[in-house]
Amino acid sequence: MRVIVGISGGSGAIYGVALLKVLQQLNIETHLVVSTLGEYVTQHECGMSLEELKGLATYYHDNKDLAASIASGSFKTDAMIIAPCSMKTVAAVANGLSDNLLTRAADVIIKENRKLVVIPRETPLSSIHLENMLKLSRLGVTVLPASPGFYNHPQSIGDMVSSIVGRALDQIGVEHNLIERWGE
């Protein structure tokens, strides 16, 4: 399996970091692309440099490199997850603005009818945000807000993060044991 992981500038870089760690443990090929603000937020919230983040991915692509492999539909990928997905990135993807590699890769995933999952992290949501997410949903994109459930009684922030990462992996068909399934 080959998965593109995008990290944009919304708060919640912990989701992207956790996703990369799990995919690395599962030996799944990852192609990482990080926006400028995604790099900043990852450093600010997780204390992790871009170099450390790169170490969690199989391949890293600079966000300015629109000639990267993941910018082409002929480069076969299985899915893309943007975690977190800022409202700027949501708007760009919803409206086909492929002005950087992150949004171009998402555009390619949509046009090739592959699985795209966005994990928006914003509150409150304006009507503009909601309309852009609705537009993505109508295009077949999974909009998976970073809203963990509490029915499994999480004991830590890590448990809450794992629940969101697990749900995102469910959406792209990756088997994992991150979450306790209801009724099991």
TrEMBL record:
Q: Could you say which residues bind FMN here?
A: G9, G10, S11, S35, S86, M87, K88, T89, R121
The UniProt gene name for this protein comes to ubiX
Coiled coil residues, start to end: none
Residues binding dimethylallyl phosphate, per UniProt: Y151, R167
**Sorted alphabetically, which keywords does the UniProt record give?**
Flavoprotein, FMN, Lyase, Prenyltransferase, Transferase
Q: Which Pfam families match?
A: Flavoprotein
| Name of this protein | Flavin prenyltransferase UbiX
- Write down the superkingdom of origin: Bacteria
GO terms, molecular function: carboxy-lyase activity; flavin prenyltransferase activity
Species source reads Gottschalkia purinilytica (Clostridium purinilyticum)
Which principal EC class is assigned to this enzyme? transferase
EC annotation from Swiss-Prot or TrEMBL: 2.5.1.129
- Family named by the database record: Belongs to the UbiX/PAD1 family.
Which reaction equation describes what this protein catalyses?
Answer: dimethylallyl phosphate + FMNH2 = prenylated FMNH2 + phosphate
Kindly indicate whether the keyword Signal belongs to this entry. Answer: no
Give all residue intervals belonging to the Flavoprotein domain: 1-171
Q: What does this protein do?
A: Flavin prenyltransferase that catalyzes the synthesis of the prenylated FMN cofactor (prenyl-FMN) for 4-hydroxy-3-polyprenylbenzoic acid decarboxylase UbiD. The prenyltransferase is metal-independent and links a dimethylallyl moiety from dimethylallyl monophosphate (DMAP) to the flavin N5 and C6 atoms of FMN.
InterPro entries xrefs: Flavin_trans-like, Flavoprotein, UbiX-like
Q: Does the keyword Flavoprotein apply?
A: yes
